[in-house]
Give the backbone structure.
Amino acid sequence: MSGNTVRSVTACRVCGSERWQKVLSFGNVPLANAFLEAGDTEALAREQAYPLEVISCRECRLLSLTAVVDPQVLYRTYSYVTSDSETMARHMRTVVRLCGEQVELAEGDLVVELGSNTGEQLMAFREAGARVLGVDPARNLAEIAEQRGVPTVPEYFDSACAESIVAEHGRASVILGRHVFAHIDDVADVLAGVHALLAPDGLFTIEVPYAVDLLDGLAFDTVYHEHLSYFLISTLDTLFARHGLRTVDVERLPVHGGSVLVSAGPADGPHPTGERVRELMAHERAAGFLSDARYEDFAARVQKTCADLSHLVRDLAADGHRIAGYGASAKGTTLLNICGLGLGELEFCTDTTPQKQGRLTPGTHLPVLAPGDVGEQPDYYLLLAWNYAEEIMRKESAFLEAGGGFIVPVPEPSVRTRAVSRR
Ligand code: TMP
Ligand code: ZN
């Protein structure tokens, strides 16, 4: 990508085809995690927006963005920190358990995590007795992980990086990539690295948003520049097969709007393809995910949801209600920018992440406040972190009791108040 910030996709990164169906086109949108410093007028003036469009490969049904933003721009300093939430803590323990069911992890076996962020997931593996190593190019986050005792290679994982890990630490029983594989453009080189690093009986396990859940749940705001690919199991199976790996197992999980934990082993390894893999691939075919019509329908429904949400929020604001965003999530950036919601409708956005507080949301420039700094609560919060809806409703019961409401944007915009939240 030398010198250029954006690459336009031509050939499919999974199968090489150039036969694409256009699915979504959101125009130019700023980067989802590019929060701005409030007083930095120069940065505000320089703020960049990039095309945000989704296409579907007619051969393998990979959903891909058309524009690949240089990872050096996206990840060297990264403000996305794994959410400090009960939901995530529980989920990370589930991941340890599921990996342990598939690969017998003996004391001291190596677990390598790609995109290890602040080391939270690896700490859970270490508690289970594994030897752990993180890989993450975000130097600010790798440093935090190191301080917590999680050794972390501050680099992008590729075949060269894999060779040096093997030389220093040996082969890995588990290579895990949670919500990172869909961020990778050159999947071939990463899979070559996986091959080099993985023990012959080891498993490469990735967690990615599931394209079926994206379409069924209308989670269109999970489309942003970091997410280059949106996978079906059928598509992953094609990809793995092309790189000497065999799909072994899959588990559907509720995190981030619906994800799958998919494991693959060397094609000549001991792990067979499980029944659940076959079942989901059959479902994808039967439910139309391998043909154009399903994606046309999705695009029409996304357009309607966007328009409905815009109207709902604008009407509430026009009636004099005070509205703010809840959770300055990456998908919040997409949602606000493509629905045209900003300072005209919302006063601020709360977020529990210290790295985001005191800054401005990308494109829309809402001030991000720590929940404790809000002062008088607004009448409504637009729930931009809707993937934690249940946890947040519990935490904010006093706000609801006092008459406040949450606007839940997807799959259809709705308002939850005390009356509706009581079960
Ligand atoms: P995520 O879905 O990518 O984890 O992002 C969720 C964002 O929402 C993250 O910036 C943290 C924020 N958040 C809150 O502000 N309050 C909460 O209670 C939770 C669970 C998340
Ligand atoms: Zn393809």
